[in-house]
Specification:
This protein has 821 residues and is an alpha/beta fold. It has 21 helices and 40 strands. It has an 8-stranded parallel barrel with strand order 4-20-21-24-26-27-28-29. α3 crosses α4 and α13 runs parallel beside α14.
Length: 821
Amino acid sequence: MKSFPILVIIGGFLLTSASLLVAELADSACTDSTHTDFTYVNSARVERVRVDSQDGVPTITINGEIVRPRFVYCAPGSRPVWLEEGVKKHFDFILTPMESAEGNGTIHFRFGYAPGTIRLDDFSITDMATGRELARSNTFETDEEMEDWSSWASVWKGTRVANISRKAGALEIEILPELEKIQCDFHVFHSRSLDLKEGGKYRVRFTLESSLRRQVICNAYRPANPYVWLGTIRDKNEGVDVFHSQIQMAGESGAQFVTIPTPSIWPEKEGEACDYTLLDKLIEKVLKANPNALIIPRISMNPPEWWLEKHPGDRMIWRGLPAPEYDQSPKQPMATPSSQAWREDGKKVLAAAIRHMEEKYGPYMGGYHPTGQNTAEWFTYNTWHPGRAGYSACNQRVWREWVQDKYRTEVALQNAWNRPEITFKTVEVPTIEMWKDAQKTPILTDRMLLDYHEFMQIQMTNTVLAFSETAREASEGKKLVVIFYGYAYEFSGASNGPAYSAHYALQRLLDSPSIDIICSPQSYFDRQAGGGGQCMLCAESIALSGKMYLMEDDTRTHLTPSNQQCPGYFDGADTVEETRELLRRNTAECACRNFATWWMDLGASGWYADPELWKEMKALAKMDQWFIENPTPYAPETAVFIDENVMLRISHGKFSGKGISRMRAHLSRMGVSYGQYFTSDLISGKIQKMPKMCVMLHAELYTSEERAKITQAVEKMTEKTGENASEKTSERALLWVSLDGCATSALREEAVKRGVHLFTDTECNVWASGPFIILHASQDGSVKVTPRPGFTTMTDEMTGETVSGMLEMKKGETRVLRCLE
């Protein structure tokens, strides 16, 4: 879940994608004029890649064989270049564009936001084949040369944050302290008039000088929606192609799956034929780096601007937004999730793109990942900011239809909403004033507002299901379908309330046969050294439904540029040693809990372009192999529960997430391993083995009837397993935790009372399954480790050395122990 400035999104995702032309929206209109034969080089033909259940454990299988669920995420890019304080640096680079720009190419600089001055001088671009200057040489001796340059953004929300001017024979960029406060890159670019040919060679020369040490990123682009990346301009000795190198290192380390952001599959203009040229080039670039890669493209389903202009009633509309940042009825670059037109048109372009990839690269395609809405993760645009969406004509119409379908008669509606005057024709989307009034109480009781919350979840998941079903059908049921969704813990403290995110209907997706993998980033809370590194959602419920959970590991590494401060930046690593400890913690946890994971180069600048990091992936192969050979359901003695439907009752702006999101830190440090479930799994009996401690979060949101159902379910499970129900097992097992939360020390005390096995004698982050215990120290000091009964010896999985029960650990250190009988 990425909530960060648009320029970071552009730098990390949109600008590394490319805009493709797709045919007019008709089933048979898609023609591929760019198709060429592709020579398969992998030794074994891959026909089926799916998630299958092995003894109740979800596993990824290739042609029926279980494989490591380890991925890498990359996008075309390169390492940034350092400018040293006060040192003029000369750039002399040969640019070979991967795509043509016919009179609309541009050279684009990103300088970060650290206050200071940068001077650009002696800029020139020469066609090496003809010797022709593509643009006049800029020595900045005259004001006329300034016409070739533009910037973004000198003014932000009414405040000047940077200046660009000609001074002393150079282009001077002055970044003001105000820019650092908003943490947004300052961009400078040459006029969009360059004529660049694919495969041509162009000599780009310029000098840069900075008043302080900083990093700079320089790329060539062709403006489009989104921009088309043509190549990186860098110093001869810096900025290696990290796209190629990371894919190669990942493959050599056992991470065969590669996920990439694809060029847009939507038409640039309505009615034009599909042109998959850039998509093909991107796929083939992956295969050059790893001929045995299995590719899972991340495909944006957000429609282009021309589509939104054609369907103005389906465009997302907000209300209650602060001026002057927005006006009171802004047009947003998103379709409303309730748009049936978007679903139908999107299904056609998605099916066409998948058919193209299957026909041309079938044995190399591991699956498909349809994405959309805010940061491509299927949550409501603007979830973390003021204002509310939902005021489009389309959404109003669908809401009215949904209400009528639910209540059938106006009498039933009037009674449920306690509004005797309401009719089906007068049903309206709740106003901003209604939402503000609802903030007076922490728990919503107004049935109209609760119904609207339910409606939001259903509409978002209806759209997700439409595209998931299309991906399943277009790949003939043979390839993985991956979806972002269900961030129940992460959105619990959203300012607009959890329900506004529309991420509280995960069970609907788990019930669908069209989805294999549900994924989310690792939680942006408590991922730092010494933290638990938790997941955002009810991961164990995903496994109980036969699906696999994938945790996106976008840890900020020691290689992350300082001007790419994406989510989680301040909780990342500064050295290679710190990075290895975090990656070891994260990946080992995934192994224990039967998760897939990908290491994500979020900034497309080589966050993982270090062989030392991939040694961790290779070293953990033995652990992964044990779970491949011994599929082991993750069934910890401590389980934590939340209820999706109950979470819809939280009034927006009333809870910080202390008793839900932040509880994960306390649970992780207990010294026990815990699982994350839906309350419905407890009530329905999906959980086969009774946990010794059931931590029931948001206790005050449950009704007395709901509490009674939970108690009865625990008693029933006790009888089923033959335990003595007369001991009031429900009272012993259930621990009700309010929205105020509960401290780690109290949780440890409650665990001891219930007979939960504590792996450590002090607070420590612990994950355990099978013979493995993962320790990540939350503090410096001695940690006494006690394996489960029956195990007598422990070895260090990374070194093979035998270890004693007493370990000296530094905060942020990770140990992977294997217990032997």
